[in-house]
Structure formats: structure tokens, C-alpha cells
Specification:
With 290 residues, this protein is of the alpha/beta class. It is built from 14 helices and five strands. It has a domain of 196 residues: P-loop containing nucleotide triphosphate hydrolases (Rossmann fold).
């Protein structure tokens, strides 16, 4: 079995509501891959601790456990400190990877790769590349008009949880954001080696989960595991933190092909026309418009 590869993490990139959580679960269901629920500590703490000094350790631990969503990992501070002190921390990148590794050990997984799913990464991709020049990027794209349906559905739920997504509900804003996000991610990926990136489509993942997952794993020289098809059969607490399931309840079921093209029934003709006009180039580029 391969040893833990700490300096080549997997980063899942994509627009919010584009299937990033589904992809996270499918990959996390592999025995040798750990991609925990979304947390922000690497994102928030790199500016303060990026130039690592061992004297920062106590301050870092305090900030880590105060970081957004980190509490959902249910990690013991005492046990983590003990583990980190048993390791020789090389730099900030290594420290971050050790925390992900500790999470996997806590969940009885002996991993090769660790990864992260965070829609906020689209704004700090250059920082990932700085800390992890060998990182592997998976860009998942979904028809923006179906994403618009998801945004509008969430808006109707009037979610009040502190971690609930805060997304626009105006079709023109959604279309512009989708267009901008796709272009921004693609510009970044143009600078990355072909061996370290792959673009997949939500629609392919839903229609043929096994084939699309094998395509990703092939880039990592990993074998597909049948358990990856049945990620939704795990206990809900193993799928997402309970509070996240309020807006991610679909992860408790297998992928549903009905989520493809649903905009035809859920958006008005004017909304579709508006979206098509704003994001015309990107919709055509990715096969969503003729």
C-alpha cells in the first residue's frame, strides 16, 4: 500500500450547488482517501501562520479550534496536540496536512491522499498553489440554470442556521456569478500541469457515477472501490454534520437523474432567456447550449 502523500492534496473546485459535496462523499468513501466536511481553517489561518514557527503552536491551536466549522470534525484538542507534538512539523503546509491525517486516523482510515472541498477556494487558488505546488485539482461543472433552481429552492426555505449558504436569488446575479466562477477557475487551471487536474461534469457524475469516479481515480493511480457507489448508505453523521443536512438532504439518497435539466420546469421562460443571454458563451462552451 502507498504511504501517506502529505504534499499532494486533492482540492475539489466548483460553483456552489454544483455537486461538490456529492463528489466529496464519493471520494471520501474510498479507503485510501479522506476529504472531511467543509472547514475553513486552512483558508483563514494561512495568512497568520503561513510562515511557520514552532513558537506559534499554542496560538495556532487556539485559532484552529475557533475556526469556522472546525467543531463539526469532533476532534479532541488534547489528542490532536499530543499527535502534533509527536511529529516534526516541517512548515505550514505540512502542519495542515497532519490535521487532515489526524482526522482520518480518528475515523479509522489509513489514507494515502487527503483533500478539501470548499467553495471559497475559487478566490484563493493562487494560495493553494503556493502552499501545495503538487496539489491535484478536480473542477466540477454543472449547468448553471439547474444551479439557479437550487439557489431559488434554498431561498424559499428561509434557512437561519449560521452555516446555511448565503446565495443570491436574482437570476441575473446567479448567471453572472456562475459565468465569473467558471472563467476564474479555468484561468487558474490553465496554469496547472495536465497531470494535476481534471474537469468533470455533474451530469456525468449523476448519469454514470462509477465511470466518472474511475476517470478521476485513474489520474491518481488509484483503483475504484465498489463502496464508493453506496456513500449514501452510511450513517447520516458520517455523510455530513447534522446541521449541514438541513440543506444537503439529497446526499442521503443516490444521485437522482431528475436533477438534470430541471430548470426547464422550474424556471420561467424569461428567467431561462436571461440566464442564456448572460452566460451564453460558457453555456455553449460546456455543451449546455447548441
Amino acid at each position: 500500500m502507498k504511504r501517506f502523500v502529505w504534499d499532494q492534496p486533492i482540492f475539489i473546485l466548483g460553483n456552489p450547488r454544483s455537486g461538490t459535496s456529492l463528489l466529496r462523499l464519493v471520494l471520501h468513501s474510498h479507503d485510501s482517501i479522506s476529504i472531511p466536511p467543509e472547514s475553513h481553517f486552512f483558508l483563514w489561518l494561512e495568512e497568520k501562520y503561513g510562515v511557520w514557527n514552532d513558537d506559534y503552536f499554542s496560538s495556532y491551536i487556539k485559532d484552529l479550534f475557533n475556526s469556522t466549522k472546525f467543531e463539526t470534525w469532533n476532534i479532541s484538542k488534547y489528542e490532536l496536540i499530543k499527535f502534533l507534538k509527536s511529529e516534526k512539523i516541517e512548515n505550514y503546509s505540512h502542519l495542515t496536512s497532519l490535521i487532515y491525517y489526524f482526522y482520518s486516523k480518528k475515523n479509522n482510515k489509513e489514507i494515502v491522499y487527503w483533500g478539501d472541498k470548499n467553495s471559497l477556494w475559487k478566490d484563493k487558488l493562487h494560495r493553494i498553489n503556493y502552499f501545495y505546488p503538487n496539489a491535484f485539482f478536480i473542477n466540477i461543472i454543472r449547468d448553471g440554470r439547474d444551479i439557479a433552481c437550487s439557489y431559488k429552492s434554498l431561498d424559499e426555505k428561509k434557512l437561519e442556521h449560521k452555516y446555511a449558504p448565503k446565495l443570491p436569488n436574482q437570476i441575473a446575479v446567479i448567471a453572472q456569478d456562475w459565468k465569473t466562477n467558471i472563467k476564474s477557475i479555468e484561468r487558474f487551471l490553465d496554469t496547472i500541469s495536465t497531470d494535476n487536474k481534471i474537469t468533470i461534469y455533474y451530469e456525468d457524475l449523476v448519469r454514470n457515477l462509477e465511470m466518472t469516479t474511475k476517470k478521476i481515480l485513474g489520474k491518481l493511480n488509484m483503483e475504484f472501490e465498489n463502496s464508493q457507489l453506496f456513500y449514501y448508505k452510511n450513517q447520516p453523521s458520517e455523510i455530513e454534520p447534522f446541521e449541514f443536512l438541513i440543506w444537503k438532504e439529497k446526499l442521503l439518497n443516490p444521485p437522482d437523474i431528475k436533477n438534470i435539466g430541471k430548470f426547464n420546469n422550474e424556471l420561467t421562460e424569461m428567467e431561462i432567456e436571461t440566464f442564456n443571454k448572460i452566460a451564453n458563451t460558457e453555456l455553449k462552451k460546456h455543451g449546455y447550449l447548441c
